[in-house]
Structures are given as C-alpha cells and as structure tokens.
Amino acid sequence: MRPFARALVLLALLRPTALAAQAIDSLALRGHTFFLAHDLLEGRRTGRRGGDIAALYLATQASRLGLAGAGPGGSYFQDVPLIEAAIDTVATLLTLIEDGLAGPVRTVYGSPRAFIPNAGNARTLTGIEGDLAWVGSAARILARPQDLPPLEGRITVMAGVFGPNGAAADTLRSRGAVGVLQVPPGADAYALYAASRGSTRLYPDDPTVTSSFVPDLPAFLVHPSLAARLVPPPEGDSLPAPRAIPGRRIHVALGLTPQPRRARNVAAFLPGADPARRSEVVVYTAHYDHLGYSTPDARGDSLYNGFSDNAAGSAMLLALAQALAADRPPRSALFLWFTGEELGLLGSDWFVARPLLPLASIVAVINLDAGAPPAPPAAWNIQGGTRSTLGMVAADAARAAGWDARIENASPNSDHFPFLRVGVPAVFLVPAPRPFEGLTNDASQALRRRWDRYHQAADAWAPDFPFSGLVRYATFALAVGRAVAEGPWPVMLR
Ligand SMILES: [Zn+2]
C-alpha cells in the first residue's frame, strides 16, 4: 500500500485522533524545518551567523502569528553573553607517566584522537595532574560511596559520563579529586562525543550563572584504546570495583584561546483569553541551535544541519503558537527557543538565572527536543514527570487520546532540566521506543534505522521524510498545553 492510501485507512480507523491532529498545520512543520535545516544556515551554531539567522526567522514567524516580543523593550530576543574558547590542539596534550624498570616512561597523546575536554566553564576548563583512581560508574559512586578509595589529589577514571547522576561529581570533588577521565562505552560513542563537542567550548560570560550540565570538576573524555591502559580489567560481566591505580600518573595540558561571543534566546508571548489568568503562563521550550560544522562523515559532509535535532522542535513550537493563537486558552503562553543547548544547556540555564518573567508565574514548562519520529507514535515517555503533578497531567492527556504514557525521572539531557532545578514543574515529552501506530515492531525499527541520524551530518531535511509523526508529536504537546492552560496549577512533588 502506498503511504497515502495507508494514511486514508488510518484516518478512517482513528477518527478522534485525526480530528485533533487537524489543529496542527503539517505544511507549517514542513516549511519551517525546510528553512531552519537548510545548508545556508550552516548548522545553526550558537553565536554564529547561521544561528543568528535562525533566531531572526523564529522571531519573524512569531511576529507574523501576532505574538508579542517577550524580551527587553518588547524585543523577541534575550542576549546570552558567552565566552567561546578555541582548543589549541598543539598545546592540548595528555601525558601518561608509567613506572618502568629504568625510571618513568612517558607517552604523549593528542586531542581529539585520544581525548577531548568535556563541556566545561571558566573554572573547570583547566589542565590537571595526579595519580589515578578507578571509581566505576556515576550510579555506583552515588550508591556505594563507601567503596571509593582515597581520592585526595587524584585524577579519577570513570565509566561513562555523569548523566542524571550529576551529584556523583560533587562526591568526587568533595573527596579531593582534581579531575575526571570519562570512558565512553566504545569507539563509536567516543566519536559521537568528539563530533558533538566540536573544536571550541562555550560557557556563560558570568560565573554566577550556574550550570545544570557541566560537572563542577575538570572532565575529559578518553578514547577506549587509551582507557584500556588505565582501567583495571573487568571482573566477569561487571565493572571492576573502585580502587587506586598504582604505577601510573597523568598530566593533562589544555591550550585555550577564549573570546567573547553573544548568542540569543528567542521569546514570544501569547496573552491568555481570560484576563484574570493572563499573568499565569504556560511555557513551551525547544532549542534552535545545532552543531554547525564538525567532524566530517564518511561522505565528507561536515555540515550538521540538525533537521531532527532540533529544527523539528523549533518548528513544532511555531505550529503550537499558530494553533493556540487561533483558539486562545485561558492562561497565557510563552514560547522560548533556546540557544546553546547542544553545548551544555547554556540558553536555558541563562534564562532560569535571568528570567524574563517571574519564575513563580510559570504554571508549567513543556519541552520538545526528541527529534522527528518517522511515523505517528502511540506511546510517550514523560521525562521529568516524576518531579511534579504535571507528569500526571501529561500522561492523562496521552491516555485520553488513546495512547500509552510512562512517567520517568529527569535527566539533564535537555532544556526542561534547569526549570526543575529551580522548582518549576517541567516535562520533556519524548516518543517512546515502541512500535509506531499501525506498524509492527520490525517495521517500526526499520523506519527508525532509516531516519535516525542523531548528531550526524546526515540529519538533514529530506523531501520524502514522512511528517505524520511530527504532526502527532505536536498534537500531543498541544493537548498537554491545553490541559495545563485550563486545569489546576501543577505542584512539585520533591
Ligand atoms: Zn537537541
């Protein structure tokens, strides 16, 4: 069956869903993503010309929909002053010093081949030196801190990154660790990190703006082949137990050339229909930045267009604004397109530190950054939903439409996280990794394999990409937004 014929059958089978889907303009999603993911925008890199053009486009479209600028003086922009530090690969070196029979043996490794500085800030992007200690995974550090060896003055070596267990970095630092070497699960994962981090590091040009993402400890990602010389051998199927690593010492030198760079968040406001509730605001968020130019892929393509990540989410916010402006809910809506997400939640951390409206007036935050599903999802993960009653509101909205929903913990993997950190109910709506509507598990997996190009140069707009999945994603976000714009004010649970 051709896709169009199948769509007609689905339409007949799924009348209530199909009717709700009409509120989202599928051609708008197609058109906005076409522009935002275009080569001329050069991957919408934070603080670069392509990123600035994307911000201008979003502001222009918001203005065309009749939304008001929510920035200073009625502008659509919030400046985010940053420092961009270029990594000098000649001066950035890791030296492994091993005890030998005839004295210390030094082996020097270069970047980005063997290691890269992870995301950091003015305090943590620094060289380190020390003896080594293996500490296992972040989850284990938190679960069994009593197992850790003495860490005073040592460089710790860990499995993976901190992820949702950011507190593990505080444990290491409080025990005197001077830094951490992070070992990704394989060479592919290392390559993905290297391409995603790129050749510069950005951080706020204001040390009082705290990060939701960057560990408060110098952190370096190391290639598994280097890590094999540092990590004790595995014990059966499990990671080796934490221990000091004798006979080896590491020195990391980091060469950086910092310069100021200004990026911008885009902010647009739609007043609520009920004057008594106009000061109560539902916030919709999506980051519009992507990676710009980075490591070339096998075809020699080094331009990371970021169609799915996150032209898709940015376009969904415009489609939501269009639907809500045509039928305004009682409470107001604020649309925030963040910069700097890919580089460590820079735009959302800045907004939470310098909010354009009182944080206490925000009823809920709905974040969209999970890519463009290549077919309509019938199940959702409500990330961060365990932290407030907003999780139940979102799950109920899914079930009312006949879809499944699972409420999950929060992770600092996108722009909802900074809001949770300051006590504002926030969820990140994510299509669940389950069969798409009307498709078998195998057919769904085949579609995902065909279109999933997460953090690859090939994540680009394609004329044959099926937009029905993105329509469904935006339809769900609209249902959650309408429920919270009319219903009780969600409360934090913990
Ligand atoms: Zn993203």
Any key phrases for this structure?
8-stranded mixed sheet; 30% helix; 10-stranded mixed sheet; 20 strands; 494 residues; binds zinc ion; 14 helices; alpha/beta; globular
General description of the model:
Strands 1, 2, 9, 12, 13, 16, 17, 18, 19 and 20 form a ten-stranded mixed β-sheet that branches. An eight-stranded mixed β-sheet has the order 4-3-11-6-7-8-10-5. The chain has a two-stranded antiparallel ribbon with strand order 14-15. It is 30% helix and 25% strand. Helix 3 crosses helix 9 and helix 9 packs across helix 14. It has 494 residues and is an alpha/beta fold. The N terminus is likely disordered. It has 14 helices and 20 strands. The radius of gyration is 23 Å and the shape is globular. The longest helix is centred in the middle third of the chain and has 20 residues. It binds zinc ion. Zinc ion binds next to helix 9.
Short note summarizing the structure:
It is built from 14 helices and 20 strands. It is an alpha/beta fold and 494 residues long.
Say which molecules are bound, naming each kind only once: zinc ion
How many DSSP helices?
Answer: 14
Largest sheet: 10 strands, mixed
**Terminus-to-terminus distance:** 49 Å
Poorly predicted ranges: 1-22
Shape: globular
Percent helix among the residues?
A: 25-40%
What's the topology here?
Blueprint lengths: L2 H11 L1 H7 L4 H11 L12 H16 L3 E2 L7 E11 L5 E6 L6 E6 L4 E3 L10 E10 H6 L11 E5 L7 H8 L4 E5 L3 H11 L2 E5 L14 E4 L1 H4 L15 E11 L2 E15 L10 E7 L4 E2 L9 E2 L2 H20 L5 E7 L7 H8 L8 E6 L11 E5 L6 H11 L3 E5 L8 H5 L4 E6 L9 H11 L16 H19 L8
Bound molecules: zinc ion.
The site of zinc ion has 5 residues, from α9.
